Amino acid sequence: SIVLYDNNGNILTRCSDSNSYYFPKTLKTAAISLSTTSAYNAFANTPVKAVYFPNSLLSIGIGMFKNAAHLESVSFENVATSKLSFVEEGAFENCVSLKEFIFPDYTYIVNTGVFKGCTSLVKVHLPEQSVLLESEKPGGKLTVIKEELFKGCTSLKEVNIPTTITKISDRSFEGCTSLEEIFIPKNVTTVTKTAFKGCSALVVTIEAGTNTNKWAKGWNTDVNDVIYL
């Protein structure tokens, strides 16, 4: 179990369930390691099953829950008002029990391989910043589906491509063998050759007016079908 203290020695939060981590409502960056030899992987390889993040959290560090094989759920104090902006590389890599992840709409950086190897992951809702008022946005917009973001997510069935996305990168969905449909909005100007590598069941629907001139030749080699609206 984990007990966190403030500067005066008072308990900020107590984990009554040793498999659930509740973070203090003052927390802004979750990137500090429990080990003095590393600045990353704070809760990597731990037996955590459930995580609860406060609205104050701005970023999740590199490999924070990497190889946390028992992690089943990640929740936010209020996903509608959470200020999470950055999720760094491999934050949930190889979390093989994680089934669903819903991003707050404030998030505008989801880095490389965040869900790589999450073989039980079924549903992901990427941030749709277009639904927010301009004055509410803390920084930019999510514009790139990064490399290997969902690589090896063999159970993934439901994922959205936000209207803010302009590029789908190398191996973003490689090996997503259960993914049957995806809709690509017209703002996407770049799709790399290996973006959908090994997605044999996938039917890609492309919004009318999409400019595919910069899409790599052979990007659709491995998919089941492509529908142009």
Summarize the structure.
This protein has 229 residues and is mainly beta. It is 0% helix and 23% strand. It is built from no helices and 18 strands.
How would you describe this protein?
This protein has 229 residues and is an all-beta fold. The protein is built from no helices and 18 strands. It has strands at residues 3-5, 11-14, 20-22, 29-30, 50-53, 59-60, 73-76, 86-87, 100-102, 109-110, 123-125, 144-145, 158-159, 167-168, 181-184, 190-191, 203-206, 225-228. The strands form 6 sheets. Strands 4-6-8-10 form a 4-stranded parallel beta sheet, with no helix packed on it. Strands 3-5-7 form a 3-stranded parallel beta sheet, with no helix packed on it. The chain starts with a strand and ends with a strand. 39% of the residues are buried.
List keywords for this structure.
229 residues, mainly beta, 4-stranded parallel beta sheet, 3-stranded parallel beta sheet, 0% helix
Low-pLDDT regions: 32-39
The major pleated sheet works out as: 4 strands, parallel
CA radius of gyration is 18 Å
Q: How much is the average pLDDT? A: 86
Question: Secondary-structure blueprint of this entry?
Answer:
Blueprint: E1 3-5, E2 11-14, E3 20-22, E4 29-30, E5 50-53, E6 59-60, E7 73-76, E8 86-87, E9 100-102, E10 109-110, E11 123-125, E12 144-145, E13 158-159, E14 167-168, E15 181-184, E16 190-191, E17 203-206, E18 225-228
Parallel strand pairs: 3-5, 4-6, 5-7, 6-8, 8-10, 9-11, 11-13, 12-14, 14-16, 15-17, 17-18
Antiparallel strand pairs: 1-2
